Amino acid sequence: MEPQAPAPQPAAMPQTNPYASPPQLGAMPAEQQPAATAPDPVTLSNENIYTEICTQIIKEQSRIIGASLAIEQAASVEGLTIDVTTLHCDITGNGSIVINDLIEKYRDFFGHAAVEVCREAAARFLANLPAEETPSLLKS
């Protein structure tokens, strides 16, 4: 009698966690994914803060009075350039003065309520500016 070769053993099944989420199509296995790194906190310069404040003010005024009127008023502010598609602003010169001039344009045209709208639009950026560099019309 010839000796028989041992019967093939079934392949071992990998252990899986029955509570794990199913893999996403096209997802890489965890061991092949790049290591996650925390993003560096972004610190805006004062110039960028002024730019963001102007952009937010114009967007908020645009929401209330309409884009064409908000842009028309802002376009006459010296040192302020506006992208009419995105409402993103560029400032040349002293940002604090440009913002005050922008707020004055809206105030002269729409009254004191426009100043309050501007303050609300700029509020989240003001904590990043020293008090002495905060535009005077944005101070309460």
Description:
This protein is mainly α and 140 residues long. The chain has a domain at 46-138. The protein has four helices and two strands; from the N terminus they run H-H-E-E-H-H. The protein has helices at 46-65, 67-75, 95-110, 112-126; strands at residues 80-82, 89-91. A two-stranded antiparallel ribbon has the order 1-2. A hairpin with a 6-residue loop joins strand 1 and strand 2. The radius of gyration is 29 Å and the shape is elongated.
The H/E string reads: HHEEHH
Q: In whole angstroms, how far apart are the ends?
A: 102 Å
Rough shape?
elongated
How many strands, which pairing sense, and closed or not: the largest β-sheet?
2 strands, antiparallel
- Tally of helical segments: 4
Read across the widest sheet, the strand sequence of neighbours is: 1-2
β-strand amount: under 5%
Class by SSE composition: mainly alpha
Average pLDDT for all residues: 78
Radius of gyration: 29 Å
Number of strands: 2
Sequence stretches where pLDDT stays below 50 over 5 or more residues: 16-42
Residues in helix, % = 40-55%
Provide a short characterization of the protein structure:
This protein is mainly alpha-helical. The protein contains four helices and two strands.
